[in-house]
C-alpha cells in the first residue's frame, strides 16, 4: 500500500511523499523500512526507522519520513493494521478426520480442521474456521465468520453470533455451579438446563469459561471483549461493548450493562448490577446484590475511586494519627496535673 | 409426569388437580404451560404461567394452578428436575478414532467419543462417558458412570471414584509446583510422583486443575463440588461435601475438612487447615499454616466476619476520627492558653 | 542404586551400610524398605521405614538405616529423585493419526502422539514429546527434549527453547488483549502480530496462558517456573529463574527481572517493573507503572512487608484508638468544665 492509499483509507492529511510503499505496521521504536508506525505525542523525542508515521492532527515535530495526521493515531494504526495484517485466512477445507453429524449444516467456505467435531443439528455459518481439536456439541448455532481456535468447546444448544472469536481452550456452555443441600448435608444439582447466547463481534480469551444458564440464558452482548481465564457464571447478562480483563470472575445472575470496563482479577458476587459506563479497577470486589453506579470504582468492597484514595491515605496516615493521639494524651495529663495543683492551692 | 406422581416423588402435599401433565421445569417468572416452577415465599406477588408450583409448607398465597407443599421447594425442584431433565445419555459406543491401549479395561455400556485416548492398564468403569477429545493416561482408574467432558485430561495413575463429573478442560494429576534452589540460583524439580484420588460423586468445573501429590496423594472427598478455574495444588486434602467457588486457589498440603464452603477467588497458603463447617467469603486470603476454625470468615488475612465488619466500619470512620482529633487538639490548645493566662495572672 | 552410588552422586558423607539397595524416593513419614527419604532437622523425632535417609551435615540423631550427610538434603533428594524416577520416556513414534505438514521438520527420537498437529515450516527438536491432542501451529520452533502435555496449543510463529515443559491445556501465543475505541464506542482490535519466546528449561503449569506480543515479543527467561492458571499478557518480559505461583496475572509490557519470586493470585498492572530479587506475596496488587525494588512486598497496593505489617497492626488497633479518643474527649470536657467553673468563681 502506498502512503497515499493509506491516507485515504484512514482519512489522514498526508505530508511528504505519497508514493512510499508500506507493507507492515511496527512499533515506533523498532520500525524499519517499509513499516508504518504511530505516535501519540505532539512532538518527537527519538527518530524512527519507519517509512511513514501516523501522528496527531496538531503534531508539530519534524520527521524524515512522510507523516499522516489524524485525530486518533492509535485507532488509525489499528485500522490500517487490519488491512496490512489481515486475520489468517485458511482455505476452505473439511479435514478428513473431522467428525460431523449427518444432520449438521455447514455453510460456504468453512474451514473444519483436524480432530474437530460438530454435533447433531448444529449450524456452522459461512466462512467459519474451526481449528484443530475444537468441538461443537449438538444443536449449536455458529454465525458467519466465527473463529474457534484449537481445543475450544461449545456445548449443546449454545448460540453464537457472527464474527465471534473464541480463543484456544475456551469453554462455552458448561454447567453452571448450582446445588441445593438436603437435611443430611448432601448437595443435589440444581438444574443447569439453560443456554448461552453470544452476540456478534465478541472476542473471548484463552481458557475463559462461560457457563450456561441454570434455567434461562447467559448472554454476552455485541462487541464485548473478554480476556483470558475469565469466569462468567450462569445467567450472567453482559451488555454491549463491555471490556473485561483477565482472571475476573462474575457470579450468577449478575448484570453488567453496556459500555462498562472491568479490570483484571475483579470478583463480583451474584445478583449485582454494574450500571452502564461504570469502570471497575483491578482486584476490586463487588458484593452480592450491589448496584455499581456509573463512575470509577476501586477496592474491596468497591467504593468510588476518590473515596478509596482518601481512605487509603487515612490508613497510611494511621501511624501519624497514633502519634498525635499520644501527644494529646500527654498534654491532657499535664493540664490535669496543673488543674489539680491549682485546686489544691486554692 | 402428572402432578400426582410428582407430589409422591418429592413427598409433597398436593392442592389442586392431580392429573396435570408436567414435562419440564422452569423459572417461576418465565414458566409456561407444561412447566413446574418453585417459589420460596409464603405469598405471591406475581402470577406464573406454570402448570404447577412447588411451594413452602406454610404457603398462604393463591395460585391458579396446582401447588405442591414441601419443606424445601428448591430442593424438591432440583429433585424433580433430575427426573424431567436427566443427564444426557449417550448410546454405548467406542468411536473408531479412539486410541485405546490393548491392556486397558473398558466396562459395560461405555461411551468413548472421537479423538479420545485411554492408556495402558487403565480401567474405565461401567457407564462412563468419555466425550470427544478427553484423554486418560496410563494406570488410571475411573469408577462407574463418570463423565469426562470434551478435552479433559486425567494423568497417569490417578484414581477417580463413581459418578464423578469432570467438565471440559479439567486437568487432573499434572505435576505439582515444587522446586529446590541450588547455590547458583537454579531450580531443580522436587519429585512430583504422587497421585490424585477423587472420591465418588464429585463434580469439577471447567478448566480447573488438580495437581498430583509430590510424594503422597492429593485427595478430594466424596460429594465435594468444585467450580471453574480452581487451582488445587499438590497434596491438598479436601474433605467430603465441600463447596469451592470459581477461581479459588489452594496451596500445597492444605487441608479443608468436611462440609466447608469456600467462596470464589479465595487464596490459601500452604499447610493451612480449614476446620469442618467453616465458611470463607470470596477473595479472602488464608495465610500459610493458618488454622481456620468453624464460623464465617472474611478478608485478607481472614478474620471472623464480625471482626471484619467492625474493622471495616472503623476504617470507613477514619475521616471522622481525624476530624475529632483535630477538634480535640483545638480544645486542648484553648485550655493550655487559658491555663497559661491563669498562671501568669496568678 | 546402592547407598554408596547415591552418596557419590549427591556428594554425601555416608554413614552405615554402603550396599543397601534403593529404588525409590519417599516422604520420611511414609517411606518403607527400598526407599530413600530426607530430613531437614538436626535430630530425629519419629523413626522412618526408609532404607536410607539424606540428612543435614550437622545431623546428630540416631537412625537404624544408613544416613547420607549433605548441606541441602532437600536438594540432594530432588537430585536423586530425578535419577530414580526419571521423566517418563515415550518410545519414538509418530502416531498414524498425527497431522504433520509436509514442510514441518521433525528431529530424531521424537514422540508425536495421537490427534496432534504440527503446522507448516515448524521445527520439532530432537527428543521432543508431543502428547495426545497437543497442537503446534505454523512456523513454530520447538527446541530439544520439550514435552507438550495433552491438549497444549502453541500458536504460529512462537519460539520455544530446549527442555521446556508445557503442562496440559497451556496456550502459548494467543492474541493479546488490546483494542482501540472509536467515537461511537466500538472496539477495534489493536494488532496482535508479535510472538512469544520461551527460553530453555522453562516449565509452565496447566491451563496457563502466555499471549503473543502485540508488535514485539513476549519473553520468558531461562529456567523460569510458572504454575497453573497464570496469565501472562502481551509483551511481558520475564527474566531468568523467576518463580510465579498459581493464578497470578501480569498485564501488558510489565517486566519481571531475574530471580524474582511471585506468589499466587498476584495482580500486576501494565508497564510495571519488578526488579531483580524482589519477592511479592500472594494476592498482592502492583499498580500500573510501579517499580518494585528488591525486598519483600505485600498487599494491595504493594508495600514493603514491614510497612504492611505495621499498617495492618494499626488497622487492627483502631478499636482501641477510638476508645482512647473517647476517653480523651471526656477528660477534655472535664477540664473545660473545671476551667469554666474557675473562670466564673474568679
The secondary structure category of chain A is: alpha/beta
Global Rg of chain A? 29 Å
Which CATH first-tier class of the largest domain in chain A would you pick? Mainly Beta
How many strands in all of chain A? 39
CATH domain fold name of the largest domain in chain A: UDP N-Acetylglucosamine Acyltransferase, domain 1
| Strand fraction of chain A | 25-35%
Number of helices of chain A: 4
Task: Give the helix proportion of chain A (percent range).
Answer: 10-25%
Sheet bearing the most strands of chain A, described? 12 strands, mixed
What's the CATH architecture of the largest domain in chain A? 3 Solenoid
From the spread of the alpha carbons, the general shape of chain A counts as: flat
- The low-confidence parts of chain A are none
Give the oligomeric state of the chains in this entry, treating copies of one chain as homo and distinct chains as hetero.
homotrimer
CATH homologous superfamily (4th level) name of the largest domain in chain A: Hexapeptide repeat proteins
Mean pLDDT across all amino acids of chain A:
95
Short recap of the structure:
Three copies of one chain form a homotrimer. Chain A is α/β, with parallel strands linked by helices.
Any descriptors?
alpha/beta; twelve-stranded mixed sheet; Udp-n-acetylmuramoylalanyl-d-glutamate--2,6- Diaminopimelate Ligase, Chain: A, domain 1; flat; UDP N-Acetylglucosamine Acyltransferase, domain 1; 27% strand; 3 domains; homotrimer
Amino acid at each position: 500500500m502506498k502512503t497515499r492509499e493509506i491516507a485515504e483509507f484512514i482519512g489522514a492529511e498526508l505530508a511528504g511523499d505519497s508514493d512510499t510503499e508500506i507493507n507492515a505496521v511496527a512499533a515506533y521504536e523498532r520500525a524499519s523500512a517499509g513499516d508504518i508506525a504511530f505516535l501519540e505525542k505532539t512532538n518527537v523525542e527519538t527518530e524512527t526507522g519507519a517509512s511513514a508515521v501516523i501522528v496527531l492532527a496538531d503534531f508539530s515535530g519534524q520527521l524524515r519520513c512522510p507523516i499522516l495526521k489524524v485525530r486518533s493515531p492509535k485507532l488509525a494504526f489499528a485500522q490500517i493494521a487490519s488491512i496490512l495484517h489481515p486475520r489468517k485466512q485458511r482455505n476452505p477445507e473439511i479435514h478428513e478426520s473431522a467428525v460431523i453429524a449427518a444432520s449438521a449444516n455447514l455453510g460456504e467456505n468453512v474451514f473444519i480442521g483436524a480432530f474437530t467435531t460438530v454435533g447433531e443439528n448444529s449450524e456452522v455459518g459461512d466462512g467459519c474456521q474451526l481449528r484443530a481439536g475444537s468441538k461443537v456439541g449438538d444443536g449449536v448455532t455458529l454465525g458467519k465468520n466465527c473463529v474457534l481456535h484449537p481445543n475450544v468447546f461449545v456445548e449443546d444448544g449454545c448460540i453464537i453470533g457472527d464474527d465471534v472469536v473464541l480463543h484456544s481452550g475456551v469453554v462455552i456452555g458448561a454447567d453452571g455451579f448450582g446445588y441445593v443441600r438436603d437435611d443430611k448435608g448432601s448437595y443435589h444439582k440444581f438444574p443447569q438446563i439453560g443456554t448461552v447466547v453470544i452476540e456478534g463481534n465478541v472476542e473471548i480469551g484463552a481458557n475463559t469459561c462461560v457457563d450456561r444458564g441454570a434455567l434461562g440464558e447467559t448472554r454476552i452482548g455485541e462487541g464485548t471483549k473478554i480476556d483470558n481465564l475469565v469466569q462468567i457464571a450462569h445467567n450472567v447478562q453482559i451488555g454491549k461493548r463491555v471490556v473485561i480483563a483477565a482472571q475476573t470472575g462474575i457470579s450468577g445472575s449478575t448484570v453488567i450493562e453496556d459500555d462498562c470496563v472491568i479490570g483484571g482479577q475483579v470478583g463480583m458476587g451474584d445478583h449485582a448490577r454494574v450500571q452502564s459506563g461504570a469502570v471497575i479497577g483491578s482486584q476490586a470486589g463487588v458484593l452480592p446484590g450491589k448496584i455499581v453506579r456509573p463512575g470509577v470504582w476501586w477496592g474491596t468492597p468497591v467504593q468510588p475511586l476518590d473515596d478509596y484514595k482518601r481512605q487509603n491515605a487515612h490508613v497510611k496516615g494511621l501511624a501519624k494519627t497514633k502519634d498525635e493521639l499520644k501527644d494529646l494524651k500527654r498534654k491532657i495529663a499535664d493540664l490535669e496535673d496543673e488543674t489539680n495543683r491549682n485546686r489544691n492551692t486554692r
